[in-house]
Amino acid sequence: MSGGGSRLIFAALMAAGLVMAPLAGCKETDGMAAAETNPKAEGPDGLPIIFWTIKQNDQKKVGAILDAGGDIEAKGYHKATPILAAAIVDNWEMAAFLMKRGARLDAVDGRGFTLPYLAAQAKVAEGSPTAAALQEVRVALNDRAMLEKIYPPLEVRQMLKEGRWPPQ
User: Fold this and answer.
1) Domain boundaries in the chain?
2) pTM for this model (two decimals)
3) Contact 89, 146 (CB under 8 A)
């Protein structure tokens, strides 16, 4: 196969998320390529690198990105913040980690998802590390009285549209 054909196959594999682009010229620090923890870098999906790293479920790299000045409130798909991106896929260990790092618990995305709604709706295996992390998030939300009234996404979107979000 010619070089052009193999490049097309590699590009297709990258687009499908099956391989990552090579990080040309990157120096490794503590086993991590510098570009993987550069808070200004973008992931293969075009979003801030923190979202790609959350997808990879790598708390160490997420911590390194935050330590290097990464935005814990960066906006991803549908304007979701990193903590919402983790919670949406039931990655409660990552959500709890981001919570401890200072992520806002009152974030809302463009679909109307909130952390209290996602935490209330989550169904995870009892006794698992995921369940323990979810419970940790629920306790933090409860301590802030954020579980007293849980707004479904449709209602949140309507409130956003009418300028009534966040509720008082």
Assistant:
1) 72-161
2) 0.78
3) no
